[in-house]
């Protein structure tokens, strides 16, 4: 294949690939700040579980099992963290800062919707 033919093929390929690459983030981004706020509020309102911070405590490294009290305390911390993130996200939404709103909610890793 000559260099001119190769160059022409690459040019044509890039002409089709570039619009697809630019459109990909739009297809991937299907969540909005408002929908994520509603989803997190629903989890809090229904008493759903907020994912716990999974780092190991000093207590856990001493080979002890978690107690019901330590689990309840961890859930309380997770719910407080979620409520704080929700308040911050609502402030960003009111200011029209969509990206900051979504970033504020990213600290809570809710399971994806099915």
Number of strands: 0
Which percent range fits the helix content?
Answer: 55-70%
The chain-level structural class is mainly alpha
Quick one: biggest sheet?
none
Which shape, going by the Cα principal axes? flat
Rg from C-alpha positions? Answer: 23 Å
What string, H for helix and E for strand, traces the elements in order?
HHHH
- Which stretches are low in confidence, meaning pLDDT under 50 for 5 or more residues running? 22-28
Straight-line N-to-C gap: 49 Å
Helix segment tally: 4
Instruction: Report strand %.
Output: under 5%
- Tell me, rounded to a whole number, the average pLDDT: 74
Report on the architecture of this protein.
The chain is mainly α and about 110 residues long. It contains four helices and no strands. The model is unreliable at about 20-30 (pLDDT under 50).
Please outline the helices and strands.
Elements: H1 3-28, H2 33-45, H3 68-94, H4 98-105
Helix pairs in contact: 2-3, 2-4, 3-4
Brief overview, please?
This protein is mainly alpha-helical and 114 residues long. The chain has 4 helices and no strands. The relative contact order is 0.13.
Keywords:
114 residues, mainly alpha, 0% strand
């Amino acid at each position: 294949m000559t260099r001119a033919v190769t160059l022409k093929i690459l040019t044509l390929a890039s002409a089709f690939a570039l619009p697809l690459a630019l459109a990909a983030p739009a297809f991937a981004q299907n969540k909005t700040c408002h929908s994520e706020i509603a989803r997190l509020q629903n989890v809090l309102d229904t008493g759903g579980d907020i994912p716990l911070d999974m780092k190991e405590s000093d207590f856990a490294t001493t080979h002890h099992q978690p107690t019901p009290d330590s689990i309840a305390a961890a859930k309380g911390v997770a719910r407080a963290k979620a409520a704080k993130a929700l308040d911050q996200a609502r402030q960003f939404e009111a200011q029209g800062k969509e990206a900051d709103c979504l970033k504020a909610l990213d600290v809570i890793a809710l399971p994806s919707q099915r």
